[in-house]
Amino acid sequence: MSQPILYAPMAYARYEASQTLPEKFTRLLKRSGLADRVKGKHVAIKMHVGSGVSYSTIPPVFVRKLVDFVQSHGGKPFITDHYVAGRHPEQRGYTEHNLGCPILEGCGHLGKYFYAKPVDYKTFRHVDIAGLIHDADVLINFSHVKGHGSCGFGGACKNIAMGCVTDRTRHEIHGLEGGLVWDADKCTHCGKCITACNHDANSFSKPGKDGVYEVNYHHCTLCQHCVKICPTGAITLDSHNYTDFQTGMALCTKTVLDTFAPEDIYHINVLTAITALCDCWGMTTPSLVPDIGIMAGPDIVAVERASLDAIRIEDLIPVGVPQGRALSGSGHLFQQLHGKDPFVQLDKLEEAGLGSQDYKLVTVK
Ligand code: SF4
Ligand code: SF4
Q1: Which of 203, 230, 237 most suits a substitution to test ligand 1, by most atoms within 8 Å of the C-beta?
Q2: Which protein residue's CA is at the shortest distance from atom 2 of ligand 2?
Q3: Ligand with an atom nearest the CA of residue 193
Q4: CB of 215 shorter than 6 A to ligand 2
């Protein structure tokens, strides 16, 4: 059976505030069923508070709408993310005064408050669930959708798998990535691959002939500049399409969501300022496509699928792609940009039993 996804579109017919996305968001929330679930409950609103000079995370006006809605129905909301203090959310307008509720570090101020759950997938062993998220009664997964260098795109799954856990878990998932393969026998240590990288993602472990090529996959976009510039073919791209990383993301997401009753989870994807890279880069590049709107529902797979389907290569805004970068020409826009099939993440979520990619849009006018 198709999962209904509430969809508040950007498109408008008249010059009226009621036609704009914040007002449609309010109407979407009224139809969400959340009003009946939050009374007397501690409600964790998980979002990305951005960092640096980014201005593409969910605008405060939408966060305030959600907080007001939860409070008006008797809920006790709090905003949560990781690295909150270091990210200075106040610089992007995220303050308790503006949003109407506290903004809390999910793992506590010292980052040591978590619940460890075992998993067993290759080298991935620990899902350390942020304590405040684990302890909450209701989870509203409030995600900004954008591209992501490691998994093609970041939305609801990424907001949980990378955002509701500790550094140990993030590192274990990133450890599944694979990606670039370096052949020491072919390397002449000319250094061209290092200067070709625009993301400070690669380095040698030490100067001289004994240095080992290392890649920080949190920063690497798999642009392949290093692959292409290497005069000896010492760097190649492996071919497993990051399936392990996306499998790890899905397993982590399932482990976090399993701590809640299904009716106490709700996913809201905000499709505005859809940029090439994750919000954690601390910057905002031009949008890849026009703003789309908001998708929401209790089925994370359906929400993600509806979001991906709405981001179409036909709507590409060329300035959103870095100058000089050619798209590959086949597959989803994010696949053409990052070299990874974003639908693999959805397949893994579906295999984990978290929902269905079969959805139908219910437009909120
Ligand atoms: S460009 Fe190739 S040969 Fe030169 S340092 Fe990098 S990997 Fe080695
Ligand atoms: S693929 Fe691109 S981002 Fe990654 S290390 Fe090579 S040059 Fe840097």
Answers
A1: 230
A2: 223
A3: 1
A4: yes
- pLDDT of 239 strictly over 60: no
Taking residues 232-240, report their average pLDDT.
82
Output the pTM of the full model: 0.87
Which atom of ligand 1 sits closest to the CA of residue 196?
Answer: 1
* Ligand 2 atom nearest to 221, measured from its CA: 3
Residue closest by Cα to atom 2 of ligand 1: 230
Output the domain CATH number for residue 228: 3.30.70.20
Asked if residue 159 and residue 199 are part of one domain, the reply reads no
Among all ligands shown, which has an atom nearest to the Cα of 190?
1
| Mean pLDDT of the residues in the chain | 94
Work out the number of other CB atoms within 10 angstroms of the CB of residue 316. Answer: 18
- CATH (domain of 318): 3.40.50.11440
Looking at the structure, do residues 89 and 191 belong to the same domain, yes or no? no
Q: Which structural domain range is residue 75 located in?
A: 3-175+242-363
φ/ψ (deg, to 5) at 349: -65, -40
- Reply yes or no on whether the pLDDT at 278 is more than 90: no
Q: Nearest-CA neighbor of 65 among 84, 47, 40? A: 47
Task: Report the distance separating Cα 43 and Cα 31, nearest Å.
Answer: 18
Q: 3-state SS of the chain: helix, strand, coil percent to 5?
A: 35, 20, 45
Percent of the chain residues topping a pLDDT of 70: 98
